[in-house]
Amino acid sequence: MSYISDKESAKHHFDSIAKDYDYWKEKNRYYHDVIKSFVLRNIRPQAKVLEIGCGTGAILSATNPSLGVGVDISPGMIQIAKAKYPQYQFYSTPFENFQLDEKFDYIIMIDVVDHVYDVIDVFKNISRFCHPRTKIILTTINPWWDPILDLMEKFHAKMPEGPHNFIEKRHIKNMMELVDFRVNFSGYLLLFPKKIPILSYLANTVGIRTWLINKFSSVQSLVIQPMVRNNPDLGYGASVIIPCYNEEGNIADAIRRVPPMGARTEIIVVNDGSKDKTADIVRGMQKDYPNLRLIDYSPNRGKGYAMQQGFAAAQEEILMILDADMSVPPEELLRFFEPLNHGKAEFVNGTRMVYPMENQAMRTLNLFGNKLFSLMMTYIVQQNLSDTLCGTKAFYKSEYAYYKMGVDKWGDYDLLFSAAKRGNRILEVPTHYKTRVSGESKMKTLRHGIHLLKACIKGFKEIVFIPIQKY
Question: What's the predicted TM-score (pTM) here?
Fold first, then answer.
C-alpha cells in the first residue's frame, strides 16, 4: 500500500475503482453492513444529512434524509451515485473546497480521514456546515490492521485501499481539539471483519467492549460534535417533571424551590395514584404558580410510567426530572439545564458519588449496588457512568422522541440506554445528596435490585448483542 503524497493521488485511485466499487462492497457485505448499522443507529430519519466520501451513495440513501447531500473526490463515484439516487444532491470536489449554504443535522465520514491529505483542513471546512447540535459519525481503519489488509489485497479478498493515512484514534481525538470539535463517543467495530458464525458475532459485540482485546478491532468509530465557543444561549425553556407517589410532606416545597430557567420554566407534577393529599396540595398551589400543571391518575403505575406521562405533556425543549423527596436539591437543576442550553451535551445525568452524602442519605447496601450497576452500565454503553440511579436527569425533547421506554419500571435505565444507542454524549453533573425530609424511600433494595439487573440484561441484549442488519 502507498501513502498519500498529495490531494490528487486519492482522486485517481477512487476513479480507477469506481466501476467495481459496488462489487467490492457486496463481496465484503458483512463488513459494510456492520458499518452501516453503526451509522444508522446514530441518525434519526428525515434529517438533513451530509456524507463526505459518499462513494456511490448507498449509506446516504439508507439514512432516509429529508435533505441528502453527498460529496466525493472521485467524479466516477459521483456519476454512479447520481444515476442510482437522483433524489439527492451529489458533488465531485475535494471537501476542503466544498461550499454550500446549508447546515446539517448529521455528517457522515466513513474511512474519510484515511484518504485525505490533511485532516485538519477538512475539519476546518466542516465547521461551516454545522449547527451547535450537529453530529459527525466517523469511522477509520485501525492502523494495526495495515499488514493484514495488505495481505488481503494481494489475495483479492478486499477492495484496493490505495494511498492512505492510518491514524490512531487517540491522534484523531487530539486533532479534534485543535479544530474545536469534541468527541462524544469513541469505540471499536469489527474485531473479525469476515462473517464466521457465532465467533464473529461474539467478537463484534462482547470483544469490541473488552479492554485490550478491543484494541485489535479493524475499525475505530467516533461520534463528534462542534465545541461551541463562548457557549451562546440556545434560547431553550425547561419542563421539570416531578413524579409523585404519596409525597404530601414534600411536594409543596419541591415546587417552590424549582428555579426559573431559560426562556420559560414549566413544572409538571405527575401524581402516580397517591393515596394521600399530594394532588390536592398541587391544585391549591396552581393559582399562585401559573406555570404549574398537574397530571393525576389512579392506580399507581410506577415512576417510569409517570415520567412518560410528564414527557408527553411537556411543552419545552429541555426535559428535566426532579424527585419529589428533594434528595437532590431543586436549586441544582440549573446545573443540568445550562449544558443543554449551551450545546455542551445531549444528556445530563446526576451523580451523587462526588460530594460527601448527608448522613444516611444512601444505605451501605444501596451504595454497593449502585457502584456495581454503574460498572455494568459503563461496559454496556461505553461511556463512563459513576451513578446510574440518580433520579435527576435532563435531555432534549427532540431526542426523547426516539427513546425507547417501558422496559425499566423506574425509567432511569431506559433513558440511559436510549441515549447511548443514539450516540448522545452523557455528561455527569455532581449533585449534593440529602436525606429525605418526609416519608420513606420507594426503593426496596432486594426487589428493585433484581428488577434493575433484569433491565441491565435487557440493555445488554439490545446494545451489546445488537443484531447486524442486512441492507
Answer: 0.79
